[in-house]
Amino acid sequence: MKIKNIVLIGASGFVGTRLIDLLKDRYTIVNFDKQQSRKYPELTTIVDIRDKDALKPLLKGFDLVILLAAEHRDDVSPISLYYDVNVEGTRNVVDVMDENGIKNIVFTSSVAVYGLNKTNPDESHPADPFNHYGKSKWQAEEVLREWYGKDANDKMLRILRPTVIFGERNRGNVYNLLKQISSGKFLKTGQCNNKKSMAYVGNIVAFIEYLTANAKSNYEVYNYIDKPDLSMNELVEVVGKSLDKKIPSVKIPYWLGMLGGYCFDVLAWITRKKFSISSVRVKKFCATTQFDSDKVHSTGFVSPYTLAQGIDRTIKFEFVNEKEDDIVYVSE
Question: Which residues have a catalytic role annotated?
Answer without folding.
Answer: 133
